[in-house]
Write a structure and sequence with these properties.
The complex is a heterodimer of chains A (about 120) and B (about 110). Chain A is an all-beta fold. Helix content of chain A is about 0%, strand content about 50%. Chain B is an all-beta fold. Chain B is globular and about 40 Å long. The chains are: A mainly beta (about 120), B mainly beta (about 110). At the A-B interface, strand 5, strand 6, strand 10 and strand 11 of A face strand 4, strand 5, strand 9 and strand 10 of B.
């Protein structure tokens, strides 16, 4: 069965400090990997994706993510957190065999950035 | 403005009363899909559509129907809603031949009593 794990329900970090939101997956083949952010009472917004190539992917708002094939992980990172980064973050994977038709999401991690 | 529009945004209904949640996108996207979001479970895919008249089941299709008669619209139909369908629903669309970035609507919160 395909699954995506976000082991931390919540991550707390002080403004200006680096942040990491973790994601691991169990999906057949080499899936496409995504991160989305959700602000209160809004839909999800795309942050970044890994399709192929360089394992370090840069996305919107200064976020980046590192694909690690051996550990089947795709952790989201930012060098210096902002209070405005506080939101709910979702990792998603799409098995290549489905050609972007099927997506599996993690349970979400709430990021709290304190001033 | 490019957007995915869902209606209604909030709905309280009773068991067994048929309802439809509409979804419309103005980006000429081929691909559209429906998700439900439940605490601790993240988003789970209900149905998706690769183009007009082409739909397929996601992971949790039971109790739902969809149709895709026009490219821009992808309604979600609950023929006989039950309390376990109380959830937050999201519609999303994408250029299927692009690289999979989904554009989401703002969600429809459904309560079935």
């Amino acid at each position: 069965a395909q699954s995506v794990a976000q082991p931390e329900d919540q991550v707390n970090v002080a403004e200006g400090n680096p942040l990491t939101v973790k994601c691991t997956y169990s999906v057949s083949g080499n899936p496409y990997l995504f991160w989305y952010v959700q602000y209160p009472n809004r839909g999800l917004q795309f942050l970044l994706k890994y399709i192929t190539g360089d394992n370090l992917v840069k996305g919107s708002y200064g976020f980046e993510a590192e694909f690690n094939k051996s550990q089947t992980s795709f952790h989201l990172k930012k060098p210096s957190a902002l209070v405005s980064d506080s939101a709910l973050y979702f990792c998603a994977v799409s098995p290549r065999v489905y050609n972007f038709n099927k997506f599996y999401f993690g349970s979400g991690t709430k990021l709290n950035v304190k001033p | 403005e490019a957007q995915v529009t869902q209606n209604p945004r909030y709905l309280i209904t009773v068991t067994g009363k048929k309802l439809t949640v509409t979804c419309s996108q103005n980006m000429n996207h081929e691909y559209m899909s429906w998700y439900r979001q439940d605490p601790g479970l993240g988003l789970r895919q209900i149905y998706y559509s690769m183009n007009v008249e082409v739909t397929d089941k996601g992971d949790v299709p039971e109790g739902y129907k969809v149709s895709r008669k026009e490219k821009r619209n992808f309604p979600l139909i609950l023929e006989s809603p039950s309390p376990n369908q109380t959830s937050l629903y999201f519609c999303a669309s994408s250029f299927r031949k692009d690289t999979g970035e989904l554009f989401f609507g703002e969600g429809s919160r459904l309560t079935v009593l």
